[in-house]
Amino acid sequence: MEPSFVWDDSYLTHLGDVDEQHRALIALFDELSRALFQGAGADDGPAHAIYQRLLAYTQYHFHEEEELMRRAGLDERHVQAHCALHQQFVEQIRLLWSQRRHMQDQAATLAGFLTSWLGLHILGIDQAMARQIAAIEAGTAAAEAFEHEREGHDQGTQALLRMIGRLYGVLSAQNAQLARANQTLEERVAQRTAELQQANERLRVASRTDALLGIANRASFNERLEQACALARRGRRPLALVMLDVDHFKRYNDHYGHLQGDACLQAVAHAVRGCLRRDSDLVARYGGEELAAILPDTDAAGALAVGQAMVQAVRALARPHAASPGAPHVTVSAGVCADVPPADAPGASGSAALVARADAALYRAKAAGRDRCLGEGG
Ligand SMILES: Nc1nc2c(ncn2[C@@H]2O[C@H](COP(=O)(O)OP(=O)(O)OP(=O)(O)O)[C@@H](O)[C@H]2O)c(=O)[nH]1
């Protein structure tokens, strides 16, 4: 059931402007109530626009009323209490409106608050204001009119009014606390969501990176290779691959131990990576001591030049390898191939054919004495 404001003569203050503004306010309250009840759960854009008009009009009305009280010369005790109620209302309605999404039944709560607050306010303090203005106009001193207003109520009514005022204060404070708690909760949820997103991003990067060498892992290599092949095929551009393997690495491990072996692989990976020139190039750990590079849009001559630069960069590390039957330092062998990837044949992808061809070149580089890079032409 919609709580709507039913106007009757008991609400009249007989102050022309004030009564007119009260009626306008009631009309806005009813308009907002209707919008809330009709649009419950849906987009509350229309209700929000009415709320903003209502808030603006309320503030205008409060300002007018406060000016009127000052012009009429009302006792300052009344003016202060009256202004405080106005201010409290503005704070409360703002708070309630900001929290409306957390309410179980926002239409009933908001409409109920508006209608009962206005009724209480008009029947209570606005009528007291009107009576004091009338008394002052009839020649009574402001302080006397104020005191008389107090005495006008019997003790029971006075106590009741105090209780209602106190109850309103308690509920307002409670409401503000709940709003703050909600706000904090929302901030915490937003912070946790951001942290989770960052953690997910770190996981995503980690799942594609080799933990020892800090370069792309095999899974990432496979994915990038498929993408690069598809692009190269579409553009009919050559795609180059470099397969690279550390020479006599088993002997290195046996001689220097696995930890030194790990450090050696890291140095090699760093040197090899330093030879890439384009953002689209990628070097990955293909297997134990085997690395692979994808060089999009690169022909055989270009690929051979990059492969040779990698071999030279590792040579330049001059990392001792006392157990090698070849050079006295760590070396690598590399094989390259470059081609427009062949269209996928059933059961075999163009990328697999390119890998096999680069692998065969690497095998020949090993057989030819290691520490070199060979292309498919030799
Ligand atoms: N320290 C270390 N060793 C690794 C890692 N991954 C693979 N290896 C070692 O690399 C060695 C590779 O040896 P092989 O495949 O026999 O080849 P190789 O000794 O390098 O000889 P060629 O390739 O013929 O020059 C093996 O002993 C692996 O244990 C790693 O992450 N760390």
Automatic annotation (TrEMBL):
UniProt GO BP: cell adhesion involved in single-species biofilm formation; negative regulation of bacterial-type flagellum-dependent cell motility
Alphabetized UniProt keyword annotations: Coiled coil, Iron, Metal-binding
MF terms in GO: diguanylate cyclase activity; metal ion binding
Presence of the UniProt keyword Cell membrane in the record: no
GO cellular component: plasma membrane
SUPFAM superfamilies: Hemerythrin-like, Nucleotide cyclase
Coiled-coil features, chain-numbered ranges: 175-209
InterPro entries reported for this sequence: Diguanylate_Cyclase, GGDEF_dom, Hemerythrin-like, Hemerythrin-like_sf, Hemerythrin_metal-bd, Nucleotide_cyclase, Rev_trsase/Diguanyl_cyclase
Catalysed reaction, written as an equation: 2 GTP = 3',3'-c-di-GMP + 2 diphosphate
EC nos: 2.7.7.65
Residue spans crossing the bilayer: none
Keyword Transport: no
Short name of one Pfam family: GGDEF
Domain of life: Bacteria
GGDEF domain ranges (all copies): 237-378
UniProt similarity note: Belongs to the hemerythrin family.
Protein name as catalogued: diguanylate cyclase
Organism: Oryzisolibacter propanilivorax
